[in-house]
Amino acid sequence: MGLAIVPLRVEADRLALARPIRYHGGMLSADGVGAATVTVYQGVDAGGTPIDAFYAATSDNDVHWLDSGILLDAGLYVNVGANVALVVLFVSYPQGE
Hints:
Layout: E1 6-9, E2 14-17, E3 21-30, E4 36-42, E5 49-56, E6 61-72, E7 76-80, E8 84-92
């Protein structure tokens, strides 16, 4: 049986998950005002290890997908920049990894 991959909407800088997870990627949509950025870290804050970075021009999208995902044993922190309309990350909750 495969892992269930679930969406995780993020609206501001925050510790999204404080448990081991598998990160599979995400989607960033920029608003109509300007370019947008999002950085994803392994860890509990922006001092963690960056594992993914999104950039979308005004009114555009950036999508990243990792089939196998990346196991994050120290949690998942997200830094949301300006001009972000939507951020959705995709994670699964590994058992026994």
